[in-house]
Amino acid sequence: MSELNLVLLGPPGSGKGTQGERLQEDFRLPYHATGDILRAAVRDGTELGREAKEYMDRGDLVPDEVMVGLIADRVAEEEASDGFILDGFPRTTGQAEALDSKMSELGRRLTAALLIDVSDDEVVRRLSGRRVCAKEGHIFHVEFDPPTEEGVCDLCGARLEIRDDDKPEVVRNRLAQYHDKTEPLVSYYDERGILRRVDGAQEPGEVNARIRAMLATLRMEEEL
Ligand code: AP5
Question: How far is the CA of 1 from the centre of ligand 1 (A)?
C-alpha cells in the first residue's frame, strides 16, 4: 500500500479536528493537530506553552520558527513511515515550504492537501456552539453534534468546556488571519497538483464519506 501523507486545510471551525479524529480511526495513521499540541503545552506550563499562549489568546498565529520545529521531527518518526495526518499545519507559505523541504529530505512527498470548505458565517455558527472535552479534546456541538448528556463527553466522561479562543472577538481575528496567511496555501497546493476540496457544509458523516471516497480514488490512481 502506498503512503498517505495528508494535510488538512480549512478555516477555523471548518471541521478539521472532527474529520481528523475520524480519519485517524479510518486509516490508523499518526495524527498531529498543532492546536492540540499547543493547548497541551499551555496546560502543562512548558516554555512552548508560555510562548504560544499570548498569540493563541489573541487569535494570532504562533511564529513559523516555533511551529516548524514542532512538526518536522514528527513526520520523520518511524511510526509515520506509512503516512500521517496533519491538522492545522502548515498555516503559512513559510511553513508549507519548510514541510516540502523536510519531505524531500526524507525522499517522500505529500499525497494531498485537503481543503474543507465552509463559509465565514458557518464558521461563526459552529464555533459559538462548540464544546470540547477537557481531558482528551473530543469535539461536540450543542446543536449539530450534541453529547448524549449535556456537558459530558460521550467518549471518556470528562467535562465539556468552551475553548478560550472561541470568544466572538477572537474568532473574528482567527478568520482574518486565515484569509490573510493561510488561504494562499490553497493556490500553493493547487499549483502543485495536490489540492483536493471537500464541501464541509454537509453533516460530519457525509463529509467523512466524501473524504474517504476521494482518498480511495487517489490511492488507486497512485498504485496504477
Ligand atoms: P487550532 O486548534 O488548529 O484552531 P483552528 O484551525 O482555528 O481550527 P479549530 O480547531 O477551531 O476548528 P476545526 O477546523 O478543527 O473544527 P472542529 O472540528 O473543531 O489552532 C488554535 C490556535 O493555535 C491558532 O489560532 C494559532 O494561534 C495556533 N496555531 C495552531 N497551529 C498553528 C500553526 N501551524 N502556525 C501558527 N499558529 C498555529 O469543528 C468546529 C465545530 O463545528 C465543532 O463544534 C464541531 O462539532 C462542529 N462541526 C464540525 N463539522 C461539522 C459539520 N460538518 N456540520 C456541523 N457542525 C460541524
Answer: 30
